[in-house]
Amino acid sequence: MEMAKSQLSPPLGVDIFSVLQKRIIRWEYPPGHRLTEESLCDEFGVSRSPIREALHTLVENGLVDKEPHRGYRVKQPNMQEINELYDVRLALELFVVEMLAARGMPSADWQRLHNTWQAILDNLSSTAIDFAIKKDEEFHETLAVTIGNQTLVQLLRDIYERLHFIRMTDITTFERLKITSEQHLKILDCIKAGAVDRAQEALRMNIEVGRTNVEQAFKEVLAQAYMGHRSST
User: Fold this and answer.
1) What is the rounded CA–CA span in Å between residue 119 and residue 185?
2) CATH fold of the domain at 5-76
3) CA pseudo-torsion sign 23, 27, 30, 31
4) Fewer CB within 10 Å, N side or C side of the chain?
5) What is the pTM of this model?
6) Any idea what the Cα angle at residue 24 is, between residues 65 and 15, rounded to 5°?
């Protein structure tokens, strides 16, 4: 775990939230894992107030569920909901690349994204996965922002936020990062060439490969959680 009680000065609720969020995103806390105020107070060496603040924020972010009289549990991802979000995301982003390929994309934005992903592709082994995941999210959001439709951007941001937790299971290897980099560069090249159909197909491939990886990771994590539960009973 990131923090040991003996090494900490009492953190604020936001700091505790950040630590717990990372543990959940990295699957250190599997789906169904129970979080109690007592154990967290003991670990972090703080009163209940900042712990409750952190847990409340986790609930608001959709990472844990509050169970009356039983504490908090890491939320079980719902694959049907995840697929529905991916469906809506795909439809919106297909519209985005259609507009960009048809109308053109601001050269400064295009060049910045191209430079970023070419640099990642050229330096795969030295690229931190966390950094790449952040840049992946920025890539898709930047494409949406450049068409100037704020309603669409807000819809996509809401979807990205709801998918953020599960999308952390997508880019986990350098091979996957290589594929993602090549796909992003292809999307950009098709946009620059004004090739609407090819831009949409490249985007569809990028999102569907990500969806497949997420589904597989989802099944593996649930299987691990089930086996862990059986071994503890």
Assistant:
1) 11
2) Arc Repressor Mutant, subunit A (1.10.10)
3) positive
4) C
5) 0.73
6) 95
Rounded Cα distance between 41 and 7, Å, is: 15
Homologous superfamily of 79-222: GntR ligand-binding domain-like (1.20.120.530)
Report pLDDT digits (tens) over 23-70. Answer: 887 778 888 899 999 999 999 999 999 999 999 999 987 789 998 888
Query: Are the CB atoms for 65 and 55 separated by under 8 Å?
Result: no
Question: Which stretches does DSSP call E strand in the chain?
Answer: 34-35, 64-67, 71-74
- Measured between alpha carbons, how far is 64 from 191 in angstroms, rounded to an integer? 39
Nearest to 78 by CA among 162, 171, 204: 162
Question: Can you tell me which residue has the tokens 């939320």?
Answer: 75
| Nearest in space to 179 (alpha carbons), one of 124, 230, 138 | 124
Tell me the two tokens of residue 150: 């704020």
